[in-house]
Amino acid sequence: MSPRAAARLATLGFTRVYDYAAGKADWGSFNLPLNGRAGTETRAGAHVRSDVPTCRLDEPLRHVCQRVEKAGWDTCFVVDEAGIVIGRLGRSALRGQQEQSVGDAMMPGPSTVRPSARLEAMVKRMHEQNLSNLPVTTSDGRLVGLLMREDAERVVPR
Amino acid sequence: MPISIDRDEVQRLVAEEAAHVVEVLPASEYEDEHIAGAINIPLKELNEQATRLLDRGRPVIVYCYDYQ
Which CATH architecture has domain A40-155? Predict the structure, then answer.
């Protein structure tokens, strides 16, 4: 639809017309602000905990475990140099054999949701799949934070 | 000739050139959610009169939901 609108504006004499064809779906999936009845506050991205720990593949697992425990978390996301999520260390990995590498201990390719996901749907999903949290990433895989079920249910009671 | 842009360029044009951002979906969809700062001129109403509020000296960015 937007290419037709851009073409229409050109016929009306506008000379600097730009088409953002990816539109508000793309905008929201990168956690950029949306207004309106179903604006940003009703989306997962507005309620994540962004202080969830991250580590790199080449860090010693022992150091990662110490850091995560000190920060009061029981999970850690493994990210590459661009901040793209490549794996997750869960409770068992953080409490297990710490001599292995982060790469061996992590669960690769964890399921993620976009910041624009409707909070109500995420609460339903966590309930149905018995999940305590959902990792939130942008469309290109960069970590935004962790959506905790308790936080989401405070906003959208079941 | 309209130029296709990505979100980074949208942000740059708004910040540096005070671009108009126009959602061309119907009003109900705009009211449901829209890019912060965008105005609404539905495609079916995109005519000379509706565009009078746009400053022709500034860039105009149009968008809808996605590529569909």
Answer: Roll (3.10)
Inter-chain touch B36–A7, beta carbons under 8 Å: no
Q: What is the pLDDT of residues B8-55, one digit of tens each?
A: 999 999 999 999 999 999 999 999 899 999 999 999 999 999 999 999
- CB-nearest to A22 from B1, B6, B37 is B6
pLDDT digits (tens, 9 = 90+) for A51-107: 999 999 999 999 999 999 999 999 999 999 999 999 999 999 998 887 888 999 999
Mutate to test the interface with B, among A15, A26, A27, A32 (most CBs of B within 10 A): A27
Q: Domain B7-63: which topology?
A: Oxidized Rhodanese; domain 1 (3.40.250)
Q: Which residues of A touch B62 (CB under 8 A)?
A: 2, 5-6, 9, 17-20
Q: What is the DSSP string of chain A?
A: -HHHHHHHHHHTT-SSEEE-TTHHHHHHHTT--EESTT-GGGBGGGG-BTT--EE-TTS-HHHHHHHHHHTT-S-EEEE-TT-BEEEEE-HHHHHS-TTS-HHHHSEES---B-TTSBHHHHHHHHHHTT-SEEEEE-TT-BEEEEEEHHHHHHHS--
Q: Where are the domains of chain B?
A: 7-63
Please tell me the pTM assigned to this model: 0.77
A32 chain-B contacts, CB cut-off 8 A: 7, 11, 35-36
Write out pLDDT tens, residues A33-55: 899 887 777 889 989 999 999 99
Residues of chain A with CATH 3.10.580.10: 40-155
